[in-house]
Amino acid sequence: MATTSPKINPPAKIPFWRDIRILAIIAQSIFMAAVLAGFAWLISNFLANAERQGLSIGFDFLRITAGFDIAEGIDYSATDTFGRALWVGTINTIRVSLLGIILTTITGILVGIARLSNNWLLGLIAGGYIEIIRNVPLLVVLYFIYFGIVLQLPSVDDSVQPFGLPIFLNQRGISFPGLTATIGFPIWLAFIVLATIFVMILWTIQSRQEEQTGKSINKGSTAIVSFLIIVAIGWFVTGSFVSDQGMMVATSRNITEFKDYQSIFLVKIDTDALAELGMSKALLNQLDSISEYKGVKEQLYAEINALETDGGDPTVLQEQLKILDSASLTVCGEKDSIGVINASSRLRRLGINVKVKDEKSMTKASANYAKGNCDLLAGTQSQLAAERSVFDAPDAHTVVPVSVTPMVVNTPAPAGFNIQGGGRISPEFAALLFGLVLYTSTFAAEIVRAGILSVSKGQSEAARALGLNEGQRLRLIVLPQAMRVIIPPMTSQYLNLTKNSSLAVAIAYPDLVSVGNTVLNNSGQAVQVIIIFMTTYLSISLLISAFLNWYNKKVALVER
Hints:
It is a single chain. By secondary structure, this protein is an alpha+beta fold. The chain is 60% helix and 9% strand. The chain has 19 helices and twelve strands. The protein has a five-stranded mixed β-sheet with strand order 6-5-7-4-8, with helices on both faces. Helix 2 runs antiparallel to helix 3 (120-133), helix 2 (82-115) packs across helix 15 (427-453) and helix 16 (457-465) crosses helix 17 (470-500).
């Protein structure tokens, strides 16, 4: 006899007013509607009050000429608009924030690891740094760094050069060598891309060889050496075959190659004044080459130090040294052009003192050269040929080719009452960046320490049992697992650093808030400027959060 299975009735449908999921959606919808209604009421109330007061709420004022200068940042002049001024402030804020985040991350990791070090002194120093700095208000830290350290640096004439490097520290900021791309850089970049592809292929081949033979291959060293060889070949090939630079000089100077410019410089030395100050004929006779010129200066430095040590009067020797330093070649050219940077840097590397007179256009620079205000005119060979053709006596001037590498080192050097050439960091930027990093890295260090301590001790014991050293243990075992704990709170510190950069107004760094306050005072558009503040900082914060959330998911450990 066949049996029939009992019929199972479907479960009764839950009424929507009792369904928790539907109730949650309804509650959230009501809350969101209330929030939007509140915002709508606030906005309409504000617009109504503004209309009664006769205030305009538009952003048309951003097209009005600003009429004020900004000390640093991207290209800007007083004739630009308020919108351009605010954009300059925004870029300055982003620049100090991004650089601060990078340096804070590095400093925080190092200090956090140092605090867990078995070295008692190192741990004590790291702990003392954290406990002291994080309990001092950031504004106080900024004031101390700016007024107590940066502004106490010596004047330009007495600039500090750490370890004799071409880095100058003074009250006007920090000058350092910079890199400038030339016409050959794209070709050299192609060699870099080729080297990268070659290294990737080589790495894949060697990895397969390891799998097939079971023998270990030093892939890292091979990859580095191969990459450097290809890049070096590209550098020399590009520098040899791609050169469009030159310098114009009077034909009477008899300049045929670059090193001949030394003779023009040596003539500039006032030997009569040196003789009147009592310089010996033996030293004067040595001033016929750059190497001997350097030797005379070094001898004077040594004699001055000896006199100061013995309590003597080195005034005469110091005057002789000033005369030697005052001799220089003047180079004219277009402002920030490759020609001026390349010529001045190469002359300085020869040991020649250089002064630069750069103009907004090559035509003005050429006019200066024609008037005899400079010894050399630097630029591309085509520019120099065009300028030479309009001179009254073109044959009286010669264009000497100058080799140029894919990237030119723009070396700074004292020139008159300032430092010319190279990159420069203003005192305000340096103080703000150093203060933000110094303060925020204390919190970052504690986050790193907590993340490392969150990793089970068994992981470290297993790493040591496998023979890994302490560096490998941290890099390969501990830090990857600690990142799950480190990244979320570190995101908050990055956001704090970005928002704390608004304290730049206290030390006159032209960030968004500082420039915005000037725009507000000049235009009277307070509400619009505040809206721009809020929108800009919100956008930057959301971008930082989005990137770190993506990175957090990328490095998250997949667990079963």
